[in-house]
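Please review the protein record below. Let me know how this chain folds according to its tokens.
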Amino acid sequence: MLELNTDRMRAEIADGIGWMTFNNPSRHNALSLEMWRAIGEIVSHFEGDKDVRVIVMTGAGGKAFVSGADISEFDKQRSNSEQKEEYARISASGSHALATVTKPLIAMVEGYCIGGGLATALAADIRFASPDSSFGIPAAKLGLGYEYAGLAKLARVVGPARARDILFSARFLSAEEAQNAGLVQFISPRDRIRNDVITYAKQIATNAPLTVAAAKAAINAYERGGQIDDVEAVEALVSACFDSDDYKEGRRAFAEKRPPEFTGR
């Protein structure tokens, strides 16, 4: 278990999976400033740990993944433009860590996934949800403004028309509607969702890490419009795959008709 300066976040590693848990259940895991600080620390630790092949983020308590920002601290932390800038700097650092982590990132959603919680879930590569989950961005009911990056990501995932519906109406989507919109890839019953996520994560973890990282980088580059620097970085990652020990192992395992044992080198 990673030691953190807050008990509102938990981090642990098991069987190649790094678990990041939003641990503020009394407020439906609403994100506080200390939680945003810890997110960057946790992601950085998992990114640097060779034993972590996949990262899963989830909420404690079973009632919410993340229900948005912790509004109770707005009077203290976000009551004027100067405080807003500091809050934005810290939360942006956490968001940047989620957006730039090279390892596969899975969101396991049970219950509410609202506002900043939906933006956080959208940072994941794959999203699982329980059937009773709900998704939405109620900013229009609070008078809040959302930054461009989060809304652009939403529009890329669900399309501009659905993004307008979600934002203008501030309504909540069911798990089924969220899946139809592309917000969710898998819906699993409450009593199976954790095992389903573990099974899926282990399936990824047994694959070649360099190949998975190159694939993630390529799709991210596509989402950003195929900028030349991004494309060149992907080409370098692809070349590294072909020069790797894992590529040799993959060919040997195929010839010997056995599962490969990849090391990420």
Summary: The CA atoms of residues 143 and 166 lie 15 Å apart.
